[in-house]
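We modelled the chain as a single entity of 645 amino acids. Its sequence is:
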Amino acid sequence: MKHRLLHIGLFIFLLFPGTLFSQAPDPHFIEKIALDEAERWTKKAAFAEASWSGDYDLTYQRMSWQVDPAVRYISGVVFSKFTSKTDGLDKLRFDLKSNMVVDSVTGRQGLLPFSRVADLLEISLPESLAPGSIDSVTVFYRGEPVSSGFGSFETGNHGGVPVMWTLSEPYGAHEWWPCKQSLADKVDSTDFMVTTPEIYRTAGNGVLVSEIVRKGKRTMHWKHRYPIATYLVAIAVTNYADYSDTLDLGDGRKMPVVNFVYPEYLDAAKSNTAVTLDLIGLYNRLFGEYPFSDEKYGHAQFGWRGGMEHQTMSFMGGLYFELIAHELAHSWFGNCITLASWHDIWLNEGFATYATGLSYEHLFDGIYWKPWKSGLLKEIVGKPDGSVYVEDTTRFSRVFDARLSYYKGSFLLHMLRWILGDEAFFRAVRNYFNDQTLKYGFATQADWVSHLEAASGISLDEFFRDWYYGEGFPVYSATFENKGGGLLQIGLSQTSSHNSVDFFEMPVPVRVYSKGKKDSADFRLDHRYDGQLFDVAVSFPVAEMVIDPDLWLIRKIGTITGVRNIPAVHHDVVFYPNPSGGSWHFSLPEGEIPEKVEIYNDAGTLLEEKIPGRDSFAFPGLPPGIYLVRLTTALRVINSRLIRY
């Protein structure tokens, strides 16, 4: 979806003082994106996809538009070919804002009667159609599209030159052309003919077929032969300069990457867009070949601050690395495979956000990969609640919540990669993308999960119950103890930040170090209950432990405590008298200094700790019983049983 980029320089400077890297991650990038998306949603959320949208299948549309970016106005002729999907179809309906004037509607037999009801155009067909019947209508219309803030149809200027653009996500297309706004029906094929004053040029979906100047008017014809969701249809008009790069797809095939930019931005644009070829190449390897490779990919500059992933031609306020990476990724996830419900917006935004992270992992020698993960993680755990699933899609602030739909959605993919492993995870992604029942269509949450489970052979019900529908995250704490003989015991505990999830079952990565971090070892702990103990083999005494050192999990980390290597028997230390009335003596080898003494009950609960004397300590308040004493010196920890009479 559309995105905004702010504060990038400050974050870069904090990470790398004295040096500016224009491609470094900005922790507030997606947050600004989502805020702008939310503002658009306020204007559109009242729209509800109608039951009639399943009556017919749009197979082709040809749009002939006349616009002047200096004037807020559009006139058009829209030809629509369709196939009936219901028995006795006698009316064809399109979404069209009530202020737009319809002059006439024609069919193959001439003029057709029509009516307007609120934001609906209803056309009476000359005869009822049986399922599978093919027919067509042409709508002649005009008007001044309403302005909805960030608008479906907007005008502005750059350097004193007028610019006009459209941006219809999620339900704004009907504000400027008669269409079917649906997350169940894509138009299979389209042509766009846009006529403007001669000084202007038009950017749009698909391939530029012709550009004709006649009598002071310029007509540009864009042809698109892939299915397209209504909200991804777009045009932009101004005095564009354009240039192209070429991507080698292999097997002798090449694809243009075109850029329509403001003339005053041309030099900067050429420098910034060069990385697009590297990004397409990376995504091709990770996900599968760019899904519109028979046509093009491109950017068109427009008068909004962020970007929008219009199919084959992303509209961009500026050309920045993170914005380029994010909008490009939507070509796979959002455009080719489109969410079937706004409840599951992460199928668009979580994927595109994670793809941006993958670009940091694989490009620039990976130096920005961990800072990118760290920045997202900090935002996600900044609040204790929130699910990735959007329960109420009328709450615009929730649909486009950066922390949940973008950041947390992205990190869910990252955690799934950790659980499944790279091979199975990316096989699931590629199988999902290449699923012929989904490709160039719509996908549900269940579709994606089925591919994950097929690739891994494991059930993910519990994962999605906790992480997708549930709220919050775990807070991990741990203890570790060298048991001698190359054995390390790790105790792992967690508390949940939100009461919707009692316990997050997860494989937890830990790394242990020797003193001075000369040696290290990694372990994957299958954490199934609070306080679980794990015995692992190590080849060195462990002095330090870190939970999730490479940032695979959504989590916070609490306390991690450990004890030094403990000999099983301490023949050189005796506690006496034993039993005692509450005070004990001990003798240590010369030079060994006591640091701390702890007393535990039989259940292992710490009752009290103190600094001992040179050869004695006392716990006078203890009731009679059997206790464990733990005496810590600079060299070791000494355990013994004590009896209080």
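As a brief sanity check on the tokenised model: Residues 2-22, 39-47, 564-568 have pLDDT under 50 and may be disordered. The two ends are 73 Å apart (CA to CA).
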